[in-house]
Every structure is written in structure tokens, then in C-alpha cells.
Write a structure and sequence with these properties.
- By secondary structure, the protein is of the alpha+beta class.
- The protein has a single domain, classed as Alpha-D-Glucose-1,6-Bisphosphate, Chain A, domain 4, CATH 3.30.530.20.
- The chain is built from 4 helices and 7 strands, in the order βααββββββαα.
- A 7-stranded antiparallel sheet has the order 1-7-6-5-4-3-2.
- A hairpin with a 4-residue loop joins β2 (33-38) and β3 (43-52).
- It is globular, with a radius of gyration of 16 Å.
């Protein structure tokens, strides 16, 4: 399953880049992220909790930063397994930060695949959940930077 989207924020792309490179900050904008930490320069670990219809799936995930061209382009991959369900998931994320008047456009593509019981939930349910999460991610990124802009403006 492939999802594409974009969100415009009122921040320089260097500021946006720093959010994507800091696991704690990134966790604030990724829906369902409960904790995230850097293991080394290119490896991360996270605990996720994603609500899918009538249940919440908790998973431990390991991420790898595959490509990084500061401050414009990154490619990352995340592989995880639910804690209480058979199955696994893999997501491939591409983010491009494009300078625009007054800020940055964050363009993203997410390719998601699932195995085992996760996959058996059905593509319609998974697609609806993935679309909801992608929309929440974009909204969270926009809110993070609008809050920072307001805070900076009040200082």
C-alpha cells in the first residue's frame, strides 16, 4: 500500500529537518508513537500504539535511516512486530523538504506492507487506518510549527 501527501509549515527547512532527525521530537508528530530513541547515527527504536477500529495494536519497531541529504531529503525504513499478535509490518518512508514562500513544504511517500494476522485484518481497514494516520501526521507537523511560530512571535 502506498500513500502520498504534503503539508506546508511556516518554518525554515533546516528547522523541519531537525525535527525529523530528533527521535523525541519526531515521536511527538507520529500518531501512536509512545516513545522513540536513537541507538546510533542511523538506527532507532520505537514503541507504537495504533488504534484500528475496535482494538489497539502495540508494536516495537526498529528504524533505519537509509539516506539523508541535509536539509532536503531523507529515506527511512521501519520494521516492527506487534507485541500481542502474530505478524509484522514494514514501512518505507521518503521525505522531501521543499522551500516555499514563508516556509517549507513537507512531501512524503509511505509504502506499507504487512504480514500474518496484521495483513488478515483486511486491506480496506488497513488503508482507512493508514490514511487517517497519514492525515494526523500532517496535521501534527503543521500544529507543531504553528505553535513554535506563535511562541517565537510572543517572545
Amino acid at each position: 500500500m502506498k500513500l502520498n501527501g504534503a503539508v506546508s509549515v511556516r518554518a525554515a527547512r533546516e528547522e523541519v529537518w531537525q525535527i525529523f532527525m530528533d527521535p523525541a521530537q519526531l515521536c511527538r508528530v507520529v500518531p501512536g508513537c509512545e516513545e522513540a530513541r536513537r541507538l546510533d547515527d542511523t538506527h532507532y527504536e520505537a514503541l507504537l500504539a495504533v488504534k484500528i477500529q475496535f482494538m489497539t495494536i502495540r508494536a516495537r519497531a526498529h528504524g533505519t535511516l537509509l539516506e539523508a541529504r541535509e536539509p532536503e531529503h531523507l529515506v527511512a525504513e521501519m520494521v516492527g512486530e506487534p507485541l500481542a499478535m502474530a505478524g509484522a509490518f514494514r514501512s518505507h518512508l521518503v521525505v522531501d523538504l521543499i522551500p516555499i514562500a514563508g516556509g517549507t513544504e513537507v512531501r512524503y511517500t509511505i509504502e506499507l506492507s504487512m504480514l500474518g494476522r496484521l495483513a488478515s485484518l483486511g486491506e480496506a481497514i488497513i488503508r482507512a487506518t493508514a490514511n487517517r494516520l497519514a492525515s494526523q501526521f500532517a496535521s501534527n507537523v503543521a500544529q507543531l510549527f504553528s505553535a513554535q511560530v506563535r511562541e517565537d512571535g510572543q517572545s
